[in-house]
Amino acid sequence: MVHLNCKSGFRFFLILATSRFWIANSSIERMVPYKPKGVYYINTWHGFPWKVLGDKEPNIDFLMKNWYKKVSFDVLTACGTKDKAIFESVFPSTEPQNIYPIGLPRNDKVVNFLKLSDKNKKQIRSEIKRKLHLSVDKMVILYAPTFRDGSYERNSYLDFKADWWNSIFKDFEVLNRSHYNVREDLSTLGSVVDVSNYSDLADLFFISDLLITDYSSIMFDFALMEKPIFLYTGDFEKYKRERGMYFSRQELGLPFEETDQGLAEEIGNLSNYNIECVHEFNSCVNDRSLISTQFIVSTIKRVLYAG
After folding, report:
1. 210: closest CA among 131, 154, 268, 253?
2. Residue 179 — very low, low, confident or very high, per pLDDT cuts 50/70/90?
3. Rounded Cα distance, 97 and 92, in Å
4. What CATH number is given to the structural domain containing 163?
5. DSSP-derived 3-state class of residue 79
6. Are residues 163 and 273 in the same domain?
7. Residue 221 and residue 271 in one domain
8. Cα–Cα distance, 48 to 146 (Å, whole number)
9. Which residues, in sequence order, are bridge partners of residue 212?
10. What stretches of 18-61 show up as alpha helix (H) in DSSP?
11. pTM (2 decimals)?
């Protein structure tokens, strides 16, 4: 097995052309939809799509549109039947039977964690908190906004320097998980810890008591934990106009706020959160049927043994 960390060049494409399997969560072939004979292409994609993908995605060039239209996966994993239906439209050259609603491999660790005893869960959480130097007495907020393709507005991201967050910081610490295209420095705030470079997102799920996001697919992954989720969507109309969405905020069924202050007040009243909305959301989007990684490993073995 070769883990490609070179981004392009002759060696990159030579390794691709001589490989038996391609395993990726986006376009390993750099948007060129050519698959040599004998290559078995497994794509685990990088999240449940709320934002529009494919040829209907605004502001993408011909190369990307052509890749979405022509790429053919031998296995494409989906969180469940809902995103499988979206992927069938996004990737018309991939046979529908090759899209498997078995969950994303990156979430298998979450599924397995949830099967542990309360004692083991507590021990794992304590170890992670100790590694991140977090307080054992405070609850944890995971803040993980997505990237804006164009310009962003003042209300695109939360302002934790605002006065109304002071009362929240008495009971919570905030883990700031920025998108890799966005790096906002919040290090001057004592109750905000930057975890943008922390390698294992599942660990952050385990220790977080709630998630704040906006349009990121992280909400679909975190839903497996069945903990409170808040959507901060102060720039929703602009984002929807520029990026496109498959469904409305109301269809998600999760609480959303358009102001910093309103969101802080909602978190301050966390005891009144209707957790049933997360249960319903999770059952709708994560109707996985298998442990995804086991399925992929068994598929690779089957293909190899078949010659």
Report:
1. 268
2. low
3. 12
4. 3.40.50.12580
5. coil
6. yes
7. yes
8. 13
9. 143, 230
10. none
11. 0.92
Helix (H, G, I), strand (E, B) or coil at 142: strand
* Domain count of the fold of the chain: 2
The tens digit of pLDDT for each residue in 198-222 reads: 999 999 999 999 999 999 999 999 9
| Nearest one of 265, 65, 51, 28 to 146, comparing CA atoms | 51
Q: Which amino acid is at 178?
A: S
**77 and 90 assigned to the same domain:** yes
Token duo for residue 217: 């697919």
User: Which tokens hold the place of 2?
Assistant: 């070769």
Distance in angstroms (rounded) separating the CA atoms of residues 7 and 300: 25
Question: Which residue segment(s) compose the domain that 216 sits in?
Answer: 132-285
Rounded Cα distance between 84 and 77, Å, is 8
> E strands, the chain, where?
21-24, 40-43, 75-77, 99-100, 139-143, 172-176, 192-194, 210-213, 229-232, 256-257
Same-domain status, 215 and 233: yes
Burial of 5 (0-12, 13-18, 19+ CB in 10 A): exposed
Q: Residues 231-254: pLDDT tens digits?
A: 999 889 988 988 899 999 999 999
**Residue the block writes with tokens 């052309």:** 17
Q: How many CB atoms lie within 10 A of CB 84?
A: 18
Report the share of the chain in percent with pLDDT over 70: 90
Which one-letter amino acid corresponds to residue 116? Answer: L
Residues in the chain: 307
Residue 98 in domain: yes
Surface-to-core class of residue 132, CB atoms within 10 Å of its CB (0-12 exposed, 13-18 middle, 19+ buried): middle
The three-point CA angle 263-189-141 to 5° equals: 40
Among 254, 257, 258, smallest CA distance to 223 is for 254
- Tokens 């979450």 -> residue: 110
